[in-house]
Fold these 2 entries.
Entry 1:
Amino acid sequence: MYSIIVKTKLKAGTREQFLPTMLENAAASVRDEPGCHVFDVLQDKADPELFYLYEVYEDEAALAAHKETPHYQRSRAVVNPLIAEQSVIRAEMLAVNPGR
């Protein structure tokens, strides 16, 4: 399996615009995409405008397919202007929690 961790620092005062859109995208990804196994949205405890997205896909092709979905396209149109900085870690999963 293939995983990405996206670190997103928002522009000041944009959290209320970002969060509903990202939560909708995360829910639709897991619900509607057979290749998306996990899409967690985490907010930093010390910085309310810093978010981490933890996403697990069957493979890199499933991530590519995710980026073609209507819910992803809608979310990017909203969140892209809100982002101050963003970085991505790409990783192969070596162990999976069986209880998840």
Entry 2:
Amino acid sequence: MYGEALSRPALLLGLDAGGSGTKWALARDGQTVASGVTLPFTAALLDTPAGAQALTALAAGLPGRPEAVHAGVAGLSAGSPRAAAVARELAGVLGLEPERVSVEGDLDLAYRAHLGGGEGVLLYAGTGSVAYHVSAGGAVTRAGGYGYRIGDDGGGFSLGRAALRVLTDDLDRGVVPSGALAAEVGVVTGGLDWDTLRTFVYGTPGAASVARLAPAVGKAADAGDVRAGALLTEAAGQLATLAQRVQARVGPLPVTATGGAFRVSPLLRAALTRELPGATVQQREHAEAAARYAAAHLSGS
């Protein structure tokens, strides 16, 4: 029995950490055995109480102790001092030797989960948005991805913000917001009066609260709400522009789109393919890909 335990394949942890949440996957022998979502974690949260809370919650929520970890974390680059600091924090909270943990940017993780070097342009729309290309030699060309305070047009935060603008425009005109968009947003915010909206938007720092409204926009559009449908069309145009900016620099490579924003409605996916004929929308679990990459840390052990 003891010999069987020793020969059992290693348990590997993959992380896809961002501003809306941290997706994790545990894999053994190439198969995912458990997965989940815990608190948001980004490079900006390192050495903050929120960051410590997120890592503690991650460790406490895992149903097993991993033997190696690979993580894609928003806001950093592989090999940077920040990446090394995040790797040390992960190793400490999970009780692992530092050499069993590796960290790269979430975009680098996403790119190689979908494309090989130089194969195409990755258009990622989650909480934020970015178009990303990695050449066969590793050179990065990107457009967007500057965060919600500067850009992120077409992503989840942008969709939520646009919905709030539509509804607060109603309030400015003295009109009670109505229709499917108002109803779906109200379910998430708890109300559509300004006091309630203000608490929802500004009561929690960062982009996560507003990004939570993106699925409401999708549901309303699916129900035939004209204003919600227009917001999805606008978002598709903004995302297409990002991809085209990268194509203008690297050549007319094919576009692969992915990310949580494309899950809010099939109408967004359809609008994108109208804006970018030939583009494909492809969903893969990046945390599961990261778990497979963690196997590299077991060689020779």
